[in-house]
Each structure stands twice: as C-alpha cells, then as structure tokens.
Structure prediction request, 112 residues.
Amino acid sequence: MTKKVMFLILCCIFTTAGIFAQAPIRTFGVMKLLEYTPKNEEYVRYITGRIRNDGTKSYSVIATFGLYRNGVKLGETSDTISRLAPGEVWRFKAPIFDDDAKQVTLDSVDYF
Prediction:
C-alpha cells in the first residue's frame, strides 16, 4: 500500500473518529483564524491551519488548543511564531501527542 493511500485512509479514520471538521473563521483582536483542521503524518496527528495578522504592527502569536475526550479536558497543544508582520498569513502546526484526544477546541490566539 502506498504512503498516499495510507494517508488518505488515516485521514478518513481520524475525521470520522470525531476530532472535528474545518472550523469557522474567528477573529481575536487583530488576528483572524482563517481555518483549522486535523492532519495525520506518519504516526503523529496535528492541528493545522492559518492565522492572518490584520493589524498594523508585527506580533508574536501563540495558538492554543484544548484536547478532550467525552467532555473531559486531557491537556493542551499549541504552536507559536515569533514575528507575524501586518497582512501576513501564518500556517501553524500543533502536534497532538495524546492518543485519547477525540475532540479539539480552540482555547485562544494570543499575541504580543
């Protein structure tokens, strides 16, 4: 079985296992979350997506996600970028190491 076919099978399993579908656009001050979705690479799951800086200054940005199973919070994952310039779009990738995590929520997008 090729890696591409295996990846597609894993994506289907991961998505139907209830993690989440694509999230709606949300705004956090001058940061706009354009999308986030689950991804599988080899043996690790990720939350990937895009955030755009709609402000007039550069910022450091942290995207933090809560990991849940049956409504119980198991932990968090996050990704960070040290400088996101005005108008730039950041493609983030936050790893999910907890195999028990079945739901994900966006907890915060902080910038400074």
